[in-house]
Design a protein that fits this description.
about 70% helix, mainly alpha, globular, about 325 residues
């Protein structure tokens, strides 16, 4: 924006009678005026006068708007529900029959079904979180996100909340139907610890999705291939259909950078009472999930800042001929 335009925005009073300001900020301060307060980088001029409380309300409304779309979409196409519930059960059924043929403990059937239900969250993170900014760029809406006065973090937070609601409906339906079909029984050791493991797993997982959203956008058209490449290998590395300790200690430790690895192992120990089949003690895994949440959220903030800088410097918000 030219200097005269920015000075006009800063100095003009509301109303048609306000004229452009020709006095520089330095002259105004020297004359005894107050220096304008600094605003966050990338904040539109119209939003710089908002106080902390108004800005919080604005960001919460933006998050609610982004979540609303996905919450409402959950019930719009109910014809998809049988496929989204049935296909994970079919994928898990092959492992169930293998374990039964080998005479494995009955808890292994529950291991497989729980892993199959959690695939809904991983798929949601890959395709509805990590790839979202890239798709918005393809549709021409990404620059609107950067022009809006709301924080990009609030937009991603709303996407995460809506995605968690959408995925939870499918995961709960998969667990309920699979438990009836395969006759699975649960021996919950501690409900509070189980809920803590579930919440921490989703927190770390969706913070990873927020990080991927910026990374995928910076890689451009490779985002589609990256999402596809991260789908099946994570099923293996995180032990979706088997106890992750079977990979060996160091391989499982390396796979622990994926939140589902520690989260699934902790929930299996707590839901089926099979602590002897766990990779690490539950308390250690909960602490690891809390640490991953903090690390991935911090990296997501840095990636968002980097993405915004590259967008302004290299013009990556729009397609070339859009």
């Amino acid at each position: 924006m030219p200097a005269s335009d920015s000075e006009t925005l800063r100095g003009a009073a509301p109303g048609p009678a306000a004229g452009p300001r020709t006095v520089s900020e330095t002259d105004a301060v020297a004359a005894g005026g107050a220096r304008p307060s600094a605003a966050a980088p990338g904040t539109p001029a119209g939003a710089r006068d908002l106080g902390p409380w108004e800005r919080l309300i604005l960001n919460l409304r933006a998050a609610r708007a982004r979540a609303y779309v996905r919450v409402v979409a959950t019930g719009r196409e109910l014809s998809w529900l049988p496929f989204e519930v049935g296909l994970p059960i079919l994928a898990a059924a092959a492992y169930v029959f293998i374990y039964e043929a080998l005479g494995a403990p009955a808890e292994y059937t529950g291991f497989v079904l729980l892993g199959g239900a959690m695939t809904a969250y991983w798929m949601n993170v890959l395709w509805n979180m990590a790839s979202q900014f890239y798709w918005e760029k393809q549709s021409g809406l990404l620059e609107t996100y950067f022009l809006a006065p709301a924080s990009r973090v609030s937009l991603l937070f709303g996407m995460a909340m809506g995605g968690i609601f959408m995925s939870s409906i499918r995961a709960a339906a998969t667990l309920a139907a699979g438990s009836l079909i395969f006759g699975i029984t649960y021996h919950v050791v501690s409900w509070p610890a189980t809920m803590a493991a579930f919440v921490l797993t989703l927190s770390a997982l969706y913070c990873l999705g927020m990080l991927f959203a910026s990374v995928f956008l910076m890689y451009g058209r490779e985002a589609w291939h990256m999402a596809s490449a991260l789908q099946e290998p994570v099923y293996l590395a995180s032990g979706f259909y088997f106890p992750v300790r079977a990979l060996g200690f160091w391989a499982a430790m390396g796979a622990s950078v994926i939140p589902l690895t520690l989260g699934l192992d902790a929930m299996r120990q707590l839901v089926f009472g099979m602590a002897d089949m766990g990779f690490l003690p539950v308390a250690w895994e909960l602490a690891g999930l809390a640490g991953l949440t903090v690390v991935y959220f911090g990296l997501a903030l840095r990636a968002l800042s980097k993405m915004e800088h590259l967008a302004k410097k290299a013009g990556r918000l729009t397609l070339k001929w859009q």
